[in-house]
Write a structure and sequence with these properties.
Oligomer: single chain
Number of helices: 11
Number of strands: 17
Helix content: 25-40%
Distance between the termini: 38 Å
Strand content: 25-35%
Radius of gyration: 33 Å
Length: 443
């Protein structure tokens, strides 16, 4: 077994509630690597023994843990053969990370405060001259159990792998978002309520990102101070959107508009936010342009400005066409043109073979030896033929009318290729050899 211990970063002025949320968020994020994640004291413990092969080994997995954590991320990270050993090492080593899984001898040099069970007895053990885990382990076990209790010995044995780990239940990502926030002081204005609700909205955004989902409706609830009995138990407000959103800036603006029409019945001491309706969203590639939203709104605005400066014919984007002929399935149009698939005279042809990742602009003729096409050696035909015909409506293009039999071929030097043989009329078949062309590469 191999355990990682991650101690979350703590921002200045963070409350205990915010620290607990950061720990939970880091634990939920670690679930992408293994289902064996537990929260213990201030740390997130991750057992990755069964995941090492999947992620390329301990060093590669450690690198992903270092680089991909959600903000504010982790402050200390270490690994060890047991959960308590990893936790002790992360407490002792600061920002450093073990280069390898530590041997038992390294645990012996750790100070006592790195073991949670020893912390209540630090002063007494220090007066006895015992300041490291190794020194504690050398003390008579019977005397340690009588004076300090069996839990201290149990924790020491667990850290050294001589007793099974005793951990809280494994962490799971909740199916429903329903978070509560107790305010540090009572507030009496909707502006203060909105400011406090922003913390809950950021938590909702983190939860939605981990669930690959968007939200359609939220409910903000608030409870009044117990002294304000005339105000009742509390109130609530529902906000809905036309489309599922993951970024909560739009929700914050809608919430501000709704709260502007609310008059609080009394001081508010507690808020809670519930995601009433969620919808799974497909993962979207991030834009290379700065501040581009997943909705693409900022990208469109940027492209419109560039089109005005350079001309619409110089800022283009691909557009799908209803055409089954390779090389005619898309065209390039001005980026400001409305979306949509241009109608075509032919329906999409069902693909009998997978399309290659790269299609050549112009097919390359292949040489023949006997009747076998060549490309850096003889080609072996693996699949096909897939017959593609059409283009009678597009005769003004040089390759508009097509009558081809496509094959997947294997080249000794170039890998998998997409080749075709031109079909010729039966009367002309005996006049010469068939013409073969290279049209795509599978990568």
């Amino acid at each position: 077994m191999l355990w990682f211990s991650l101690i979350p970063s703590v921002t200045d002025g963070a409350t205990a509630d915010e620290q607990a949320w950061t720990q939970r968020l880091l634990g939920w994020w670690a679930l992408r690597f293994t289902p064996r994640v537990a929260l213990l004291d201030e740390a997130v413990l991750v057992e990755v023994g069964a995941s090492l092969r999947l992620f390329g080994g301990a060093q590669a997995l450690r690198q992903q843990l270092c680089e991909g954590a959600p903000a504010p991320g982790w402050q200390r990270l270490a690994w060890g053969p047991t959960s308590l050993a990893a936790l002790a090492l992360s407490r002792h080593q600061g920002d450093e990370v073990n280069a390898a899984c530590p041997p038992p001898e390294q645990l012996a040099t750790l100070p006592l405060h790195t073991l949670s069970a020893a912390r209540p007895h630090l002063e007494t053990l220090s007066q006895m001259g015992c300041r490291t885990l190794g020194a504690l382990r050398r003390l008579p076990r019977g005397g340690v159990a009588r004076r300090f209790g069996a839990p201290l010995l149990d924790a020491l044995d667990q850290a050294h792998g001589q007793r099974p780990d005793t951990l809280p239940p494994w962490l799971t990502l909740p199916e429903v978002f329903d978070e509560r926030l107790e305010l540090p002081f009572r507030v009496e204005s909707t502006d203060a309520v909105l400011h406090a609700a922003a913390h809950l909205l950021r938590r909702l955004q983190d939860w939605l990102a981990l669930r690959h989902a968007g939200v359609l409706a939220i409910e903000l609830r608030w409870r009044h101070d117990m002294a304000s009995r005339h105000a009742g138990g509390g109130e609530s407000l529902e906000v809905r959107t036309a489309q599922a959103v993951r970024q909560v800036d739009h929700l914050a603006r809608l919430l501000a508009e709704h709260l502007a029409h609310v008059r609080l019945k009394g001081p508010v001491g507690e808020l809670s936010l519930h995601a009433r309706e969620i919808e799974r969203l497909p993962d979207q590639a991030l834009s290379l342009l700065p501040e581009a939203l997943p909705s693409g709104e900022a990208l469109r605005h940027t492209l419109e400005k560039i089109s005005v400066r350079l001309g619409p014919d110089r800022v283009l984007r691909p557009q799908a066409l209803a055409d089954h002929r390779p090389g005619h399935m898309q065209t390039w149009v001005p980026s400001t043109q409305a979306d949509g698939i241009r109608p075509g005279p032919a329906k999409p042809h069902p693909q009998a073979m997978p399309m290659p990742a790269w299609i050549l602009d112009q097919p390359q003729p292949l040489t023949l030896r006997g009747h076998q096409p060549q490309h850096h050696g003889p080609l072996s035909l693996l699949a096909g033929p897939q017959r593609i015909e059409g283009g009678w409506w597009d005769q003004h293009h040089a390759d508009g009318v097509q009558a081809r039999d496509y094959f997947i071929a294997s080249s000794p030097a170039a890998g998998l290729l997409w080749v075709y043989k031109e079909r010729v009329p039966m009367a002309a078949e005996g006049q010469g050899a068939a013409h073969w062309f290279l049209h795509g590469v599978y990568g």
